Automatic annotation (TrEMBL), chain A:
One of its GO terms (molecular function) is molybdate ion binding. One of its GO terms (biological process) is molybdate ion transport. PANTHER family: MOLYBDATE-BINDING PERIPLASMIC PROTEIN (PTHR30632), SULFATE-BINDING PROTEIN (PTHR30632:SF0). Belongs to the bacterial solute-binding protein ModA family. Keywords: Metal-binding, Molybdenum, Signal. This is Molybdate-binding protein. It comes from Planotetraspora kaengkrachanensis. Molybdate binds at residues 56, 84, 186, 204. InterPro entries: ModA, ModA/WtpA.
UniProtKB/TrEMBL annotation, chain B:
InterPro entries: MetI-like, MetI-like_sf, ModB_ABC, NifC_ABC_porter, Sulph_transpt2. The chain crosses the membrane at residues 45-66, 78-99, 119-140, 169-189, 224-243. PANTHER family: SULFATE TRANSPORT SYSTEM PERMEASE PROTEIN, SULFATE TRANSPORT SYSTEM PERMEASE PROTEIN CYST. Part of the binding-protein-dependent transport system for molybdenum; probably responsible for the translocation of the substrate across the membrane. Part of the ABC transporter complex CysAWTP (TC 3.A.1.6.1) involved in sulfate/thiosulfate import. Probably responsible for the translocation of the substrate across the membrane. The complex is composed of two ATP-binding proteins (CysA), two transmembrane proteins (CysT and CysW) and a solute-binding protein (CysP). This is Molybdenum transport system permease. CDD domains: TM_PBP2. It holds the Pfam family BPD_transp_1. It is a multi-pass membrane protein. It comes from Planotetraspora kaengkrachanensis. PROSITE patterns: ABC_TM1. It is found in: Cell membrane; Membrane. Belongs to the binding-protein-dependent transport system permease family. CysTW subfamily.
UniProtKB/TrEMBL annotation, chain C:
Residues 290-354 form the Mop domain. It comes from Planotetraspora kaengkrachanensis. It comes from the Bacteria. GO terms for biological process: molybdate ion transport. This is ABC-type quaternary amine transporter.
C-alpha cells in the first residue's frame, strides 16, 4: 500500500498526520497505553472498581487488587497504571475512576485543585537509591561519586517525581551532577542502568528491588532529604464510592502496608 | 464522499483540538524560552540529517530490492519494514543492544575510538534514521518498480553508460517517489519520540528534540505542551508547503 | 544506396547476422543480411520473434548463439551503449522529463558532444523532421505523429550504422499513419546505413521495405522483394496478409491437383507446387455450371462478411477458400451460411509456382 504513496498529494497529508501525531507518541511508554478504555467499560456496574495508580505501584497494587477481589466476591478491580501526571490529567478530563494513588503530592494536588478528590492520605513513602550495574564499572559507592565527570549518570527529568526528588537530594548534598540524560520516567532511567549505558542513576528503592539482580542499589544518607510521599484518595465523582473507600482502607491497613513494605516502600 | 470528509475530519480534528485549547495569551513568552528554540533547532537539524542519511543508504537499498534478484530478497524486504511495526521504544532498546556502550558493535566502537553513540546528537540521528528509513525505502522501491525499464534501455541504445542512465534517466523518472519518500522520512524523523528517548536519552540542547520536550512538558504543564506541539506543527507544515511548491512546479 | 565508403564496390552486406535466442518453449533462429541503404522488413504474426530479433540486434537481449557483424565488425560482445545503432521503439519511449530537443540531444551528448554542440545537432535533426518549432515541448505535449518523428530524429542523431524500427507506425491512427508512413519512407531513403523494420502490417512492409523477411515461430518462412512475396506467398500467414487463397498441390504440365480438386493453370510446371488465386477470381453458382470439371468444386458456405465494397464468402469443402462477390450477387444467389454452392476459378487468374 505505502509503495503507491509516491505522489505528493498523498504524501503531504500523511506527513502532516505523522507530525501531528507526535503528541500521541507519549503513549509509546508502556505504562500509559490503553489508558481510559478499560475504565470506561467497567464503570457502569457497581461491582466494578477502577483504580488509577502510579506506575511504580504496578506490582503491589495488582497484588492488593487480587486480595480485594477475594474479600469482595463479585467485584472486579481494574487498574490503570501510568505516569502520575498523565493519570491526573485523565482524571481532571473526566475519566471515570474511583481511586487515585499518586507518586507525588504535586500530582495529587492537580486533582484536589480540580475538586475531583478530597483529603488525600499519604500511604507510603519511597526513598531514592543509587542504582549501578552489578559490576559497578565506575566504582560508585556514595552520592558524591556521581559528580565525577567521568561517571555517566542518568536522572529522571525534573518534570517527573523521581527527577524532582533527585534534584532535592543532590541540592541537599550540595553536589553538582551533569547527567548524560534526563529520562522521561523512572523505569526508563532504570533500563539505562540495566543495559550498562550509564554507570549510575538515581531511582527509587522499589525500582531497584523490582529489577531483581539486574542492578545493585546503594543507599545514601542524603536520600532522607528527598523522600517521596505517595498520596491516595477516593475520587469525588467515583462511580463506585463505597468500593473506593473500601479499597483505600485496604491500602492503609496493616495488610496493605506489609505488601508495600515488602516491595521496598517505607511505611508512612 | 462522506467517507472522505470523515477521513479528513479524523485527521484534522485533533489539530483543531490543539488550536482551541492553545493558551494564546501566554504564547509569545513561552515561545521565547531559549529551551524551546533549542529543541526546535535540534529537531529540524537532526531530522534533516537523518533524512540525508536515509537517502544515502536507502536509495541504493531500494535499488537493490527493486532491480536485483537475489536469494532471500523477500526476506530482506520484510526486514526493511521492521522499524515500521516495531514499537519505537523497542527499536530504541534494540539500537542500544547493538550500538550501546555494551552493545555488539558499540562495545567495539567505544574500545577502538572511545566513542559512544547513546546520549549524543549523533545518537538522535541514528534513532530517527532507523525509524524513518522504511518510509524512504518503500517509496523509492515502489517508484523504481513502477518506472518503465524500457526508458533505461532506450537510453542505453543512445550510448548512455549505466551511470549516465541512472543519473539522467532513472533518477529523474523516480524523482517524485524519492521526494515523497524523503518527505515522509523527514516528517517521521521530526515526530520521532520513542526510539530517540530510549537510545539517545533526553538532555536539553544535545538530545532533547521537540517531541521529547512536548512529552515532558505534558507531565507538568499541558499548556506548554500544546504550544510546543503547535510550533512544531507550524514549522513542519511551512517547510513541507515550501518544498512542495518548488518541486511540483518544476517537476 | 551505393556501397559504403569503407568497403567500396564489393557489394558485401553491411549487416550480416545469425540470431539465435533460446527461451523456455521458444527458439528464435533467423539469418538476416542488409546492404547499405537497404530497408529490411521483418514481418510476422504476434509472438513470431520479430521484436526479439530486433532486441538481439540492439544488444538488449543476449544471443544464445550465432553472430552479428556490422561493417565487418563483430557486435556480439559489444555492449548496447557502444553499438553503432539507433532504435525507434514501438511507443517511442521519449524521456518524459526532457524536452523534444533534449531527447534528441541525449545521444550526441552521450557520445561526448558538449551541451551546446549536442543541442545544435538536435536542433538540426528536429528541423529535418519538421518539428523545429516544437523543440521546447515535453513529450506529453506532442501528438502521436510528432512523437514518432522526435523518436526517429533521436535515433538518427547518434548517426547509427544500423537503424532498428520496432512497429514504428503501430501506435498511430489511420490518418496520421498515412502521412507518417510517407515521411518515414523519405527519411529512410536519405539514411545510408542499413535499416531493420519490424512490423505486422503488410502495407507498412510493402511501402517501406526493399526486402521482406517473414518470420513465423522464430524461423524465417519466406523472404524476397515485396512484390515477389506478395505474388508468391509460401505460407498461409503470408497468403492471408497479401489476400490470396493458397494451396499446396502436385503439378503435371498445366494441371494442378489439390486434394480432389483439379486446377488448370497457365504455367508449364511439374512436381510439388503452390497455387494461389485472389478471392475476387472465385465465382459462385447455385447449380453446377456447364463445361469443364476443372477449376470447379462443390463447397458449403461457412460464413459471409462485408469486405470493402464487396462481400467475402468463406467456403468449406474439399478446399477452404475465400470468395469476394458483389452484394448484388449475394442477393441474386440468395446465399446463407450452411448452404451448398459451386465454386469456380478462371485458369488465367491462378498462379502456380514450385513449392
Amino acid at each position: 500500500m505505502l509503495r503507491r504513496l509516491t505522489r505528493w498529494a498523498v504524501a503531504a497529508p500523511v506527513a502532516l498526520a505523522l507530525v501531528s501525531g507526535l503528541s500521541a507518541c507519549g503513549s509509546d511508554e508502556p505504562g500509559t497505553t490503553a489508558s481510559a478504555s478499560p475504565a470506561a467499560s467497567s464503570a457502569a456496574s457497581s461491582s466494578a472498581l477502577t483504580v488509577f495508580a502510579a506506575a511504580s505501584l504496578t506490582e503491589t497494587f495488582t497484588e492488593l487488587g487480587k486480595t480485594f477481589e477475594a474479600a469482595n466476591p463479585g467485584v472486579k478491580v481494574t487498574f490503570n497504571f501510568g505516569s502520575s501526571a498523565t493519570l491526573a490529567q485523565q482524571i481532571t478530563q473526566g475519566a471515570p475512576a474511583d481511586v487515585f494513588a499518586a507518586a507525588s503530592p504535586a500530582t495529587m494536588k492537580t486533582v484536589t485543585d480540580a475538586s475531583m478528590a478530597a483529603a488525600p492520605t499519604t500511604f507510603v513513602r519511597n526513598k531514592l537509591e543509587i542504582a549501578v550495574p552489578p559490576d559497578n564499572p565506575a566504582k560508585v559507592d556514595e552520592l558524591k561519586d556521581l559528580a565525577d565527570a567521568k561517571v555517566k549518570v542518568a536522572l529522571c527529568a525534573e518534570q517527573v517525581p523521581c527527577g524532582a526528588a533527585a534534584i532535592k537530594a543532590l541540592d541537599a548534598a550540595g553536589l553538582k551532577v551533569t547527567p548524560v540524560t534526563l529520562e522521561q520516567d523512572v523505569k526508563a532511567t532504570l533500563t539505562k542502568v540495566e543495559l550498562g549505558e550509564v554507570d549510575a542513576a538515581l531511582v527509587y528503592k522499589t525500582d531497584v528491588l523490582s529489577a531483581g539482580g539486574k542492578v545493585t542499589g546503594i543507599d545514601f544518607p542524603e536520600a532522607d532529604k528527598a523522600i517521596n510521599d505517595y498520596p491516595i484518595a477516593p475520587l469525588s465523582k467515583a462511580p463506585a464510592p463505597d468500593l473506593a473507600k473500601k479499597f483505600v482502607d485496604l491500602v492503609l491497613s496493616q495488610q496493605g502496608k506489609d505488601v508495600l513494605v515488602k516491595a521496598g516502600f517505607e511505611a508512612a | 464522499m462522506l467517507l472522505a470528509v470523515l477521513g479528513m475530519a479524523f485527521l484534522v480534528l485533533p489539530l483543531a483540538g490543539l488550536l482551541v485549547r492553545a493558551p494564546w495569551s501566554t504564547m509569545p513568552e513561552r515561545l521565547a524560552e531559549p529551551q524551546v528554540l533549542e529543541a526546535l533547532r535540534l529537531s529540524l537539524v537532526t531530522a534533516t540529517i537523518a533524512t540525508a542519511v536515509c537517502l544515502v543508504l536507502g536509495v541504493p537499498l531500494a535499488w537493490l530490492l527493486a532491480r536485483v534478484s537475489f536469494p532471500g530478497r523477500r526476506l530482506v524486504r520484510a526486514l526493511v519494514t521492521i522499524p515500521l511495526v516495531l514499537p519505537p521504544v523497542v527499536g530504541g532498546v534494540a539500537l542500544l543492544l547493538v550500538l550501546g556502550r555494551r552493545g555488539l558493535i558499540g562495545q567495539w566502537l567505544e574500545s577502538a575510538f572511545g566513542f559512544s553513540l547513546p546520549f549524543t546528537t549523533a545518537g538522535v540521528v541514528v534513532a530517527e534514521a532507523f525509524v524513518a528509513m522504511p518510509f524512504l525505502v518503500i517509496s523509492v522501491e515502489g517508484a523504481l518498480r513502477a518506472a518503465d525499464l524500457r526508458y533505461e534501455e532506450a537510453a542505453a541504445t543512445l550510448g548512455a553508460s549505466r551511470w549516465v542512465v541512472f543519473r539522467r534517466v532513472t533518477m529523474p523518472l523516480i524523482a517524485p517517489g524519492i521526494v515523497a519518500g524523503a518527505v515522509l522520512c523527514w516528517a517521521r524523523a521530526l515526530g520521532e519520540f520513542g526510539a530517540t528517548i530510549t537510545f539517545a536519552g533526553n538532555f536539553p540542547g544535545r538530545t532533547q528534540t521537540m517531541p521529547l520536550a512536548v512529552y515532558l512538558a505534558l507531565e507538568t504543564e499541558p499548556d506548554a505542551a500544546i504550544v510546543l506541539s503547535l510550533l512544531l506543527l507550524l514549522v513542519s507544515v511551512a517547510i513541507l508547503a515550501g518544498l512542495r511548491d518548488r518541486w511540483v512546479t518544476s517537476a | 544506396m551505393s556501397g559504403s565508403e569503407q568497403d567500396p564496390g564489393n557489394g558485401r552486406p553491411r549487416l550480416e547476422a545469425h540470431l539465435v535466442v533460446e527461451r523456455p518453449r521458444f527458439r528464435l533462429d533467423v539469418e538476416l543480411a542488409a546492404d547499405a541503404g537497404q530497408v529490411i522488413a521483418l514481418l510476422g504474426p504476434n509472438g513470431a520473434g520479430k521484436t526479439t530479433a530486433l532486441r538481439a540486434l540492439a544488444g538488449l537481449t543476449p544471443l544464445s548463439g550465432g553472430h552479428i557483424t556490422l561493417d565487418g565488425r563483430a557486435l556480439n560482445s559489444v555492449p548496447v551503449e557502444r553499438r553503432p545503432i539507433g532504435v525507434v521503439f514501438q511507443d517511442y519511449l521519449l524521456f518524459p522529463h526532457l524536452s523534444a530537443l533534449d531527447n534528441v540531444a541525449f545521444g550526441p551528448r552521450c557520445q561526448g558532444a558538449s551541451k551546446h554542440e549536442a543541442r545544435r545537432t538536435a536542433g538540426a535533426w528536429l528541423e529535418r523532421v519538421g518539428l523545429a518549432e516544437h523543440a521546447a515541448a515535453r513529450p506529453r505535449q506532442l501528438s502521436g505523429g510528432q512523437a514518432q518523428r522526435v523518436a526517429l530524429a533521436r535515433a538518427l542523431a547518434v548517426e547509427p550504422r544500423l537503424l532498428l524500427l520496432d512497429e514504428p507506425l503501430a501506435a498511430l491512427d489511420a490518418h496520421t499513419r498515412l502521412e507518417i508512413r510517407s515521411r518515414l519512407r523519405r527519411h529512410l531513403g536519405d539514411f545510408d546505413g542499413a535499416t531493420i523494420l519490424v512490423t505486422h502490417d503488410p502495407l507498412d512492409a510493402m511501402v517501406l521495405a526493399d526486402h521482406l523477411v517473414v518470420i513465423e515461430n522464430g524461423a524465417v518462412v519466406q523472404q524476397g522483394p515485396p512484390a515477389e512475396v506478395a505474388r508468391r506467398p509460401r505460407t498461409d500467414y503470408v497468403a492471408r496478409l497479401v489476400g490470396l487463397n493458397l494451396y499446396r498441390g502436385a503439378a503435371d504440365e498445366q494441371q494442378v491437383t489439390v486434394g480432389d480438386v483439379i486446377f488448370s493453370v497457365t504455367e508449364r510446371i511439374h512436381g510439388p507446387v503452390f497455387i494461389a488465386f485472389p478471392p475476387s477470381a472465385v465465382a459462385l453458382f447455385r447449380t453446377r455450371p456447364d463445361g469443364t470439371p476443372r477449376n470447379l468444386w462443390q463447397a458449403a458456405i461457412e460464413g459471409i462478411e462485408r469486405h470493402g465494397d464487396n462481400v467475402r464468402v468463406h467456403l468449406e469443402g474439399p478446399i477452404a477458400a475465400a470468395a469476394d462477390i458483389t452484394p448484388a450477387a449475394v442477393a441474386d444467389l440468395d446465399l446463407t451460411a450452411g448452404q451448398q454452392v459451386w465454386a469456380a476459378v478462371k485458369a488465367t487468374e491462378t498462379h502456380a509456382y514450385p513449392a
